Write a sequence for this structure.
């Protein structure tokens, strides 16, 4: 009797092991897997020598039949960087001065392009200075800027709306709108480059007024 | 007693698998080992990199369990070493001393047959990554797996190098090959002009007014397309290359326009008085997804071209400033708390799924077949390009040495 019970218990134990519940682990998509050696080699002006077969070693003891498929995307004589044919080095913008007659930047809140009431005194004094510059034949360029959070296409649009708000504000104070150009620099030209804190970002959400002679 | 015995013996007949999920785990992937041709191994400074790269590409395909041991042997010899008899396939490769040619031979161990063999060449040794990418794409296809041609395409990106200066670069997906193609001033928002990547559009800020140009990769020729005060961006190109979705801003009013490449005609698609940007074609290209702040903060919307009705497309997050679309699916970045994460959603249902969980991740992009997601991970001043294979869940990160990515396409 005891022997039978013992054998049954052992069989039962084996059955339980054999029928263990399957668990399926789902694979989390996680970051942090860095594979291989990465080089951003900053190669400038890669010259294509136009040949497919390089100086392969001689005395080959094996036979390779068949053509090599050229897997350069643009064919044998691709012109990427050939002769630097399409690099352009003109600097953007006209000669301008930002240290002109006390004209100051206007700063904005996160995601906003409304000029807050505490900035109106700056608008007033800027408008006076810009009016006098315009009367002496200058033009005005308003640049809108953003902090680095968010994506650049949206940021360029946000910067432009900030420039528009500033334009509307000085036009309502008498500056001739036909003398004003607006442009957005997005996050390309931060005033604060020393970090990523909210204070640093706050300095980059701005509009600059430039007098162009 | 007999009843008790009977009960114990039959107990497990009532156990039921409530959920049966089939996952492609490590054990079911095809096992593969590499052998480098002993006659050419180590004969150029790129040999070690080529080995690492082939391993990397095979892993990224998601279909193989590759053994990372470096082995050398005869390229021609048909014998397979005993320790490799339990592998399903051997990949023999020979990388030339000139570093511009790669020969591959895929051998099925079971019957010692050559399943695939081919030779690849590049014009310049700088382009060696494309040897490996093309070989792995073809090997994958030869074994009947889902196409992974995304791996051999170029990525194009603009990166800020200093204040008011940005350059446009092309690279392979790992950045092991990278080359600047436009520099000087501010050059932004590059976008491939067609599926064959033979030309691209970009925005130049180096003229009085922001201008959109098209550049031919083979000839290097540059052609002005159009310009707009304030800003101009080519955010999408139709599948046949005949139409562009542009963001333009006459009088600082940013809206999305559809532009016909052949006629130059533009049709304004959005009329909201705030910000509408980042238009992307959906499905048969009769609808677009785009970013707008029409409800106060940046979010993702869809509309039919020719209709004024707009639907909200992102069902998660309320600060979503960039999007991409493929067929009915959208990718968007959500700023939430201290992090920004990428979400995958549907333009036509409430389906949504997070693809990242921490850090600052933005600029999500579908591959041209919609199977792989590229994104940019920002860590302080450092940028990393990340990839996630939606089907196989393989993922990888490739850090940039310098520069901050402004915009990217692939």
């Amino acid at each position: 009797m005891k022997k039978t019970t013992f054998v049954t218990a052992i069989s039962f134990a084996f059955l339980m092991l054999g029928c263990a519940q399957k668990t399926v682990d789902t694979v989390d998509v996680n970051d942090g897997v860095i594979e291989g050696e990465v080089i951003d080699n900053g190669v400038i002006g890669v010259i294509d020598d136009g040949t497919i077969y390089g100086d392969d070693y001689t005395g080959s003891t094996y036979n390779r039949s068949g053509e090599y498929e050229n897997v350069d995307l643009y064919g044998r004589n691709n012109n990427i960087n050939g002769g630097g044919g399409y690099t352009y080095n003109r600097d953007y913008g006209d000669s301008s001065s930002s240290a002109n007659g006390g004209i100051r930047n206007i700063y904005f809140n996160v995601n906003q392009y409304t000029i807050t009431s505490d900035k109106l005194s700056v608008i007033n004094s800027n408008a006076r200075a810009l009016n006098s510059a315009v009367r002496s034949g200058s033009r005005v360029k308003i640049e809108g800027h953003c902090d680095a959070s968010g994506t650049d296409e949206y940021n360029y649009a946000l910067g432009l709306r900030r420039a528009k708000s500033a334009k509307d504000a000085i036009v309502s104070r008498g500056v001739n709108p036909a003398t004003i150009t607006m442009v957005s620099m997005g996050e390309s030209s931060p005033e604060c480059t020393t970090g990523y804190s909210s204070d640093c970002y706050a300095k980059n959400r701005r509009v600059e007024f430039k007098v162009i002679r | 007693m007999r009843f008790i015995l009977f009960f114990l013996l039959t107990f497990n007949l009532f156990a039921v698998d409530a959920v049966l999920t089939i996952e492609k785990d490590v054990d079911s992937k095809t096992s593969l080992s590499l052998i480098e041709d002993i006659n050419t191994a180590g004969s150029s400074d790129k040999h070690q990199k080529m080995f690492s790269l082939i391993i990397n590409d095979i892993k990224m395909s998601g279909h193989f369990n590759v053994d990372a041991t470096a082995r050398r042997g005869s390229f021609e010899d048909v014998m397979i070493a005993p320790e490799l008899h339990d592998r399903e396939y051997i990949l023999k490769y020979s990388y030339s001393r000139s570093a511009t040619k790669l020969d591959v031979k895929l051998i099925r161990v079971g019957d010692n047959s050559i399943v695939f063999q081919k030779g690849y060449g590049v014009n310049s040794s700088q382009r060696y990554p494309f040897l490996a990418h093309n070989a792995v794409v073809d090997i994958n296809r030869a074994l009947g797996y889902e196409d992974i041609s995304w791996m051999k395409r170029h990525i194009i990106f603009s990166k800020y190098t200093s204040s008011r200066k940005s350059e446009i670069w092309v690279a392979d997906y790992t950045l092991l090959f990278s080359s600047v193609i436009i520099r000087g001033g501010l050059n932004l928002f590059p976008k491939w002009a067609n599926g064959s990547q033979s030309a691209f559009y970009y925005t130049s800020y180096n003229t009085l007014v922001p201008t959109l140009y098209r550049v031919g990769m083979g000839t290097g020729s540059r052609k002005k397309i159009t310009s707009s005060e304030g800003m101009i961006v080519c955010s999408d190109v139709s599948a046949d290359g005949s139409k562009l979705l542009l963001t333009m801003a006459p009088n600082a009013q940013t809206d999305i326009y559809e532009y016909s490449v052949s006629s130059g005609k533009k049709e304004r698609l959005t009329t909201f008085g705030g910000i509408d940007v980042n238009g992307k074609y959906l499905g048969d290209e009769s609808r677009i997804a785009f970013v707008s702040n029409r409800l106060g903060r940046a979010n993702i919307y869809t509309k039919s071209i020719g209709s004024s009705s707009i639907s909200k497309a992102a069902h998660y997050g309320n600060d979503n400033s960039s999007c991409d679309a493929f067929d009915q699916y959208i990718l968007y970045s959500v700023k939430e708390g201290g992090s920004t994460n990428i979400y995958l959603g549907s333009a036509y249902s409430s389906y949504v799924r997070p693809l990242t969980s921490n850090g600052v991740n933005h600029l999500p992009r579908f591959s041209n077949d919609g199977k792989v997601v590229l994104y940019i991970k920002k860590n302080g001043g450092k940028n990393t390009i990340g990839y996630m294979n939606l089907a196989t869940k393989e993922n990888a990160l490739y850090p940039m040495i310098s520069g901050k990515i402004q915009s990217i396409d692939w």
Notes: The first strand of chain B starts at residue 30 and ends at 37. Chain B has three helices and 30 strands. Chain B touches chain A through 129 residues (CB under 8 Å).
